[in-house]
Fold this protein.
Amino acid sequence: MTQLDYPAWLRIEHWVNVLFVTLLIRSGIEILSTHPKLYWRNDSKPGTEWARLTRKTMLTDKLYDTLDEEESYSAILSLPGHKMLGMGRHWHFITVIGWILVGIAYYILLFATGQWHRYIPYSWSIFPQAWNDTLTYLSFKLPAPLPGQPLDAVQKLTYAGVIFILAPFLILTGAAQSPAVEARFPWYVRLWGGRQGARSLHFLGLLAFIAFIAVHLMMIGLWGWPQLTALMIFGEARHLGWALTASLVIIAAIVLVHIAATQWSLRSPRTVQRALGSVLIPARRLILRPLASAQHYSSSQLSAEHRVNGKPPDSDDYKIMAVHNFVDWKLEVGGLVENPMTFTLAELRALGEKQTQRVLHNCVQGWSSIGEWSGVPFREVVNMVKPLPQARHVCFLTMQDTGRDEPSAEGSGQFYEIIDLPLAYYPQCLLAYEMNGHPLPIKHGAPLRLRIENQVGFKMAKWIERIEFVSTCQGIGQGMGGWREDNVYYDREVEI
Amino acid sequence: MSTLLRWTGLDKLISFYRYFAFNGPRVTTASGVVLLLGVAAIRLYWLAGGFPLPAYPAYLAGYFALLAAAAVLASVGMVAGRRPGLVWVGWMVGSLVSAASLAMYLASRTGGLPGLPQLVGWWDYPLGTFAMALAALFVGVHVTVLTGMNVAYPHRRQWHD
């Protein structure tokens, strides 16, 4: 039988996990701050949240959107704090990749070396033993470890729960919040009670992890901090002083990593965006890009009130067009194409058979709604204009001037978004001119918006006035592939 | 007062606390009822012969009966949805019951109770620890209701924004 001790790989992974879990918690809190409200239903209806983590209340006599609801959390609790969702997302996703890889290695090593029995019980008798241990704890005493094992029964079951249930639970509920995963596998997100169900469960998982960490640290203190630290440094209870010193050095190093990540993100977010994006973008392309949307929600599932992010163009030109139902609006489609074309709204409506899709919208902030969108499949327009071989991306220019129209947003300038050309051919990539059976409302992007269902919502440009096929994102805005990418440091490709 | 809060760092703690608000009136009330009924059940168990000593004074039996009855009545009050005044009384009685049970238990283990010197220092009694935990948790839940973090049935959140 394998001796259940503390091999080097187990000790190393423990401290690496301390780093990863703390980074995940802080960056996760940053992501939560962007929409600090939790719901159970997909439509995220205002007032139906089961939890609020904000002191802001919105005025009921004034229009507001979800950008107004964002909170700015402290840089101690969140990474990096100060309403920097883009940075929080980058750190969260890069850490998730590391955590999953370390976790896979841990599982493999556990089972390959026979150490898995330190967590998985040898027999069902562990449960009555755990009950006895619980009574011992309630007697303000410490139970004995199981014979030949480093843990008592309660600890063994708790660690097994955290390693084999809680950690996978967090990863799976995280994946259920990916627009690409939800779009390709609607049954998967239904499994978790929907998008908001997954989000709420993910938050409860966070609380469970924090509770585990608190109890874990308390137990270490009660059982003997120096001895247990030595086990996790040297693998045996020797040189207690050196072990304590080494643990403090490790903890200090972890704290320094946190400080460095926070300061780097606050002072130079562009470099963080580029550096972390260089890993995250290829990872998304490899794992999530192949997932094409196959959503067909029923009419009964449509959200009565589809939430909105962003305010419409506050220009006289736009208002005049709106008053005239956009009859004099024209969509220019050009750039690197053989046949540049211009369409009126009527011409777009006449293009082929109208496609309708009932889909789950995922805002980058975390809220969601289900809506029905109708319009012309974008691939039809693409096939008409015939992109040149050097065209690699499609740029959607809108009538929104962020500085003028969106006081809650960071930055100014014309709102635009760029997608990779292959996405244009995806089955539910749509130029939508209708919503829920009616002409597209102004707040949702009238007269035309993009729908690209395996991406986060900010990619789906509203109030489109021009589409250009380009070879590179360089030279457009700040060259990062969209207004949000330029100003709030999001990734250009957002399948998650 | 505000200076004191600032010096002790409590103002930051209070500020942090005010970020949290939950909308689960039924869950909140159900939690409170379960905790209170747990407090009552343990006292009834002790009355019914489960007390860890072979004999105990009559006043203690009366105290157990009174506490259990008060806890049950408080629970009933807490779910009397149509009478908000009764609900408030239910929660307050629940907290009084919980505080009294905690105080009596701590007193029995420290200063001692008349006729029960054997209880002094007897901390290694799991059911007693569990009873203390239930009582403390109830008070905690009630504090969250009083401070606005939670809302108890039949009240509802007025989140209309």
Remarks:
- The longest strand of chain A covers residues 368-377.
